[in-house]
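Please, structure for the following, as tokens.
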Amino acid sequence: MKTTTARASAVALLVLALAGCDDADRGRVGVTYADHRLTLPPEFVRDDSAIPIDSKVEVWNAPGAQVATDFGQHGAQPECSAALGPCRIGNGAIDGRPALILRSGPDRGGQWRVHVFVPLHLAEGAGTVRPLSLGMMAHCATQARCDSLVPVLMAADLIAGPPTWEASEAGPPPPPPKPSDQ
């Protein structure tokens, strides 16, 4: 029952956040979000092994925590599930934009999580708007470690302007060759 209630609450909050974005964007004609800036504590070291396909993906590791960001068109919105353990979703704001904040844990592996999701848009001119979002996830060894990262994630800056990153240097991998009929 708690998972169903949490999921229903999460969906309702997302609908309200997205509706709020539409209303807010009407007063911000021509705003395109190009990137984001996240300042992590000095113990975090960038992990360059993340390979993005259609978004800007970054990963940093520190003792007891990993932080990952996903800035693009197909970001995953927070959702409670039994696999995450106890879970709650709240509201916040990043640079004046509505944000959903999921806190969960411990999961079956003893990990705690924080997921901050900011729905945005990418204006392409002539009234064309594509969905865009910023997702920031922290996976932590302890609840205290994740709690300490919430204000860090919420202090991210959204950068307006033309995109400053490529969705993918090489694009998705090519499909496998088709078998020949010979």
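The chain is about 20% helix and 35% strand. Residues 1-30, 167-182 have pLDDT under 50 and may be disordered.
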